[in-house]
Design goal:
- Helix 14 packs across helix 15 and helix 26 crosses helix 27.
- Strands 1-12-11-10-8-7-4-3-2 form a 9-stranded mixed sheet, sandwiched between helices. A 3-stranded antiparallel sheet has the order 5-6-9.
- It is globular.
- 54% of the residues lie in helices and 9% in strands.
- This is Lipase.
Length: 636
């Protein structure tokens, strides 16, 4: 088909959610969707009536509740570049260096086998501890050792069972039921629709009866559509199959995700011995297991609390939690109350890092004081009521710091405004969406939580965002208003405006967005985050150097360049001022001595007022000091 395995991996899972309407282009599918919508309308109306009669109605999460006043003011809160920029705060150099370190580790998570512990320690001061790959290898060795111990009494049937166990241990395979259901759906759709997209058969077989001119036109039209479009349409159908699948199939997927033998995303752990901090770094979507987590996006309750969470990612976090828990306990045992934990990750890995971090606190394994803020890069929102959860747990909003590239589609995937037909479709095929507060009240699946940081790279790398200041930068989106209620409302509206500009559908409508070289990959790739953050640091360092040079010029300029005198002071001959004409208004040697004396007095007052060390005097021009000393002696 002309599609490499890398391109399939890089195909963004967001596409499957936001363009579901493309499935209903055929008449038969359109009729089926209309029937589902009619059935859903009846069910929703009945559910609404029951909810109004029920006194024990479930309380809406705070982040999803929209008051009537908010509806009235929503249209008035329009942002342009100036008004939006007033809500931005540029990160400090110290903060930028921290984010650069985390982005480097996040980029390293995609090449764990190539990590050299010696270089990591030498250049970054971090000690490599372990990784998911090592855990898998140890588990497989233990499994093989156990099987070899039972081998003398085993027959052929037992060997088949052992082979099945070995396949189950492979983290890049999924259960038969869920794999068959997803793969069959995609294969069926491809088989029936891709003939008009890709030339699977011989071109002569497809258009043998057509004229040469007509055949040439067919070739051109076929070449316009590439393998990325075929992959997109097939996986879109897979998403619908998962959303509408029976609970038994989805539970089979969930059981695989939370299995301690599987790892939806690879991860590694390293330590900073000087600060007692242990870093947990999780990569994004790279395996079939991670795709299962992405596709199972229905809302479920998080840890028995009144907060809804993305089911697939939550189930995956449960498995990673069990894998990481021994390393958490070991670090606590070594450092006690001085132990600190930092979780970070990219894309799906960022969402997993957030959930594992919160689970450690909710389950009482780690005190809140030991959990450093979670830093994510290009991670999708996965909670409905996340900010209220942070408040209940006694955590500040800064505990979650989500860094988003200015045009990254993934953080917008679940937090953009969903069209009505998509929302109704989700409610029709899956009952969990019918009472989903975020979808009902804000027309989004999951709301952003914590602090949002917006990263704008250099314009040569990616076009600037219309709401952001020109030039590269990394900004906190914050509201400086004193009134907390007004500030919260304005901040929420600003987030919504940013996450919908550009809207994911607008990004997808651009043909240059697709493929390994497309804008989607460019603005979401972890390496792009790393390069952009480092670019911000270089820009800030240049700004600081320029400011220091300007400060030194203003500080020392009056001392080195006295009023009315030129920069050059030559002993033994007259020196003309900068305003004099050749041969006129020349100063004699005594005038120069007098000027040197005044400069020395001003310098002495500066040293005394600034409490500068006497060593600084040695840095002053020796010639001027000699002239000043000579003038003092002559005066006396």
């Amino acid at each position: 088909m002309g599609t490499s395995y890398t391109d399939v991996q890089n195909g963004n899972w967001v596409l499957k959610i936001l363009h579901v309407s493309s499935l209903w282009r055929d008449r038969e599918e359109m009729k089926q969707s209309q029937e589902l919508e009619k059935e859903e309308e009846v069910m929703v109306n009945g559910q609404v009536n029951n909810n109004h009669d029920d006194d024990d109605e479930e309380e809406e999460c705070e982040v999803c509740r929209i008051d009537d006043d908010d509806d009235d003011d929503e249209g008035a809160l329009e942002f342009d570049r100036d008004s939006f920029s007033r809500l931005l705060r540029r990160v400090s150099l110290t903060e930028a260096k921290l984010y650069a370190q985390m982005s480097y580790l996040g980029n390293l998570a995609y090449c764990i086998p190539k990590i050299k512990p010696g270089n990591l320690l030498k250049y970054h001061g971090l000690c490599f501890v372990t990784s998911s790959l090592e855990k898998k290898e140890l588990a497989m060795k233990a499994e093989k050792k156990h099987m070899s111990a039972e081998k003398p009494g085993a027959d052929g049937k037992t060997e088949d069972e052992a082979e099945g166990k070995e396949q189950k241990n492979n983290g890049r395979r999924i259960s038969a039921s869920s794999a068959y259901h997803i793969a069959a759906s995609a294969a069926s759709y491809l088989h029936s629709h891709t003939r008009s997209i890709l030339p699977f058969k011989s071109l002569k077989a497809e258009c043998g009866q057509d004229s040469p001119e007509q055949g040439s036109g067919t070739v051109d039209s076929i070449n316009i559509m590439d393998s990325d479009v075929a992959s997109f349409m097939a996986t879109t159908d897979s998403v619908t199959a998962v959303v509408a699948a029976k609970e038994e199939v989805k539970q089979a997927v969930a059981d695989d995700l939370k299995s301690t033998r599987l790892s939806p995303c690879e991860w590694f752990i390293c330590d900073d011995d000087h600060s007692g901090t242990r870093f947990f770094v999780i990569q994004g979507s790279e395996s079939l297991a991670s795709w299962q987590a992405n596709l199972l996006f229905e809302p479920v309750q998080f840890e028995g609390l009144d907060v809804l969470v993305h089911r697939g990612i939550y189930e995956a976090a449960k498995g990673i939690y069990e894998q990481m828990l021994p390393e958490v306990r070991a670090h606590l045992k070594s450092y006690g109350k001085h132990a600190a934990f930092r979780f970070t990750g990219h894309s799906l890995g960022g969402s997993l890092s957030l959930l594992v971090n919160l689970m450690l606190l909710v389950r009482g394994e780690v005190p809140a004081a030991s959990l450093l803020p979670v830093i994510t890069f290009g991670a999708p929102s996965i909670m409905c009521g996340g900010d209220s959860l942070l408040c209940k747990l006694g955590l500040p909003r800064s505990h979650v710091q989500s860094i988003t590239m200015h045009r990254d589609i993934v953080p917008r995937a679940f937090s953009c405004n969903y069209p009505n037909h998509v929302a109704e479709l989700l409610k029709a095929v899956n009952g969990n969406f019918r009472n989903h507060p975020c979808l009902n009240n804000q027309k989004l699946l999951y709301a952003p939580m914590g602090e949002l940081l917006i990263l704008q790279p250099d314009e040569k790398f990616s076009p600037h965002h219309p709401l952001l200041p020109s030039g590269s930068g990394l900004y906190f989106l914050d509201c400086p208003l004193l009134d907390k209620d007004d500030a919260e409302k304005q901040l929420r509206m600003a987030k919504m405006v940013f996450l919908n500009s550009p809207h994911p559908l607008e990004i997808l409508s651009d043909r240059s967005a697709y493929g390994s070289e497309g804008t989607i990959q460019r603005d979401h790739d972890m390496n792009s985050y790393l390069r952009s953050v480092r670019g911000v640091i270089r820009q800030e360092l240049n700004r600081i150097r320029k400011a220091r040079r300007e400060h030194r010029r203003k500080l020392w300029g009056p001392l080195v360049l006295p009023r009315g005198m030129s920069a050059g002071i030559i002993v033994g001959r007259p020196v003309a001022s900068s305003n004099s004409v050749m041969g006129l208004d020349q100063f004699n040697f005594s005038g120069i001595i007098h000027t040197g004396k005044e400069s020395l007095k001003r310098f002495s007052r500066l040293v005394a007022s600034q409490h500068m060390r006497l060593l600084v005097v040695l840095l002053f021009p020796a010639r001027l000091l000699l002239l000043g000393a000579y003038s003092v002696i002559s005066f006396n």
